[in-house]
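Let us work through a complete example step by step.
Step 1: write down the sequence.
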Amino acid sequence: MEKVLEYLNEHKEEHVNNLREAVAIPSVSAWPSHRHEVIRMIKHVGSKLESLDYEVEYCDLGNQKLPDGSELKLPPVILAAPKNFDVAKKTVCVYGHCDVQPAQLTDGWNTEPFVLTEKDGKMYGRGSTDDKGPVIGWLNVLTAFNKTGTELPVNVMFCFEGMEESNSDGLDELLLERKDTFFDNVDCICISDSNWMSYTRPCITYGLRGIAYFYAEVECADKDMHSGVYGGSVHEAMSDLIYVMNQLVDVNAKLVVPKIYDQVAPLTDEELASYDNVDFDLNEYAADIKAPKLVHDNKADCLMSRWRYPSLSLHGIEGAFYEPGGKTVIPGKVIGKFSIRLVPNMTPDVVEKLVTEHLESKWKERNSPNRFRVLMVDGSKPWVSELDHPSYEAAKNAFKTVFNVDPDYTREGGSIPITLTFQEALGMNVLLLPMGGVDDCEHSQNEKLDREKYFKGMELFVRYFYELPLAFALT
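Step 2: predict the structure and record it as tokens.
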């Protein structure tokens, strides 16, 4: 192990350049125009694995059906296994994603989002922490084993996709199809696609919220109109849409959709007490985003609002004017976009029904003659894992060795749709092993990854590999 860690320490700039190379590929899965870039990123990662003596398969997932009815080729999924697979060893399958969220300089970035820019020990760039930093980190670790001639203590397999930021289209079916072949000898799943909860103490993530993503469409005309010519004479779509989107959540972040909270699992005394031990600072949390005031003024309520209760967020309006300056136009059609983060025991199907019924009822009250429809375009269930597993014990020991402190056990407010499929359909324990920091701004402007977190994260991966067989031996 020491040779591997020494190699990683001596090649830090090479590891940064590897990440820089990956960030430069604008692999935005939500932009149909950039699908070829997602595929390029998949091929980029696949070629690295091939150079490290891995058998790499690029699995065809078919086509993606877009909201307008057209179809687009889905990027392939990488399934990779070492050519020297040893049946006597335990096997971990590492999952990661090669796609990123949309980003443009005009969104408010201080630097070009697809140019990795270093400043004060921080590496800024889209995907730096979510999820290219961890993905490239795993590859750097494999390179260190390869270059030093060190045998891996476990078999390490990989599943890398290019649609995680777009609901992992097609991946569920592939995993089920390969359950008894590629995944047959896998003992556990490890994912590094989450972040620390505090500045001082690392964490192991054992739960995620699901998601239901909606479009609310209002159409008043077949084209945009001059507000001086048509203003006051047409029922405007934008006014209707603002009304609709104001019927979803109140000023204190409570959902106002009837019966939505009936699905939420009840809070136990044991769970409530567990929040006291989590290293989480409300003031730091607010200061990171310069929020004037949080919804909750105590730690437990704030954490529960992120982990174990649903939330609803309004994301934007397609078809509306948003650029700098003024434009006196009445949009002919607008699409409001919002999502609900789901928690146990909520399901996308039930949420879709409740939201649709609620908004259609409010639309009827509005009594507008315009055309209206609401549709759920993505949906995934929440995920919670079992902590009593050797993989979690290995991760805890690895964290303690690298950071000299026991990690917190936390849930996250975000969603990784495929975790539940790994757990329920394939029957495997899933662990989230964070590399990124609490203030990395994933999905936001100025996403970054600290250099030190990047390097320490790779050491964590190495030690996790060595701790795994020891933890399994104790069970």
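Step 3: interpret the result. The mean pLDDT is 96.
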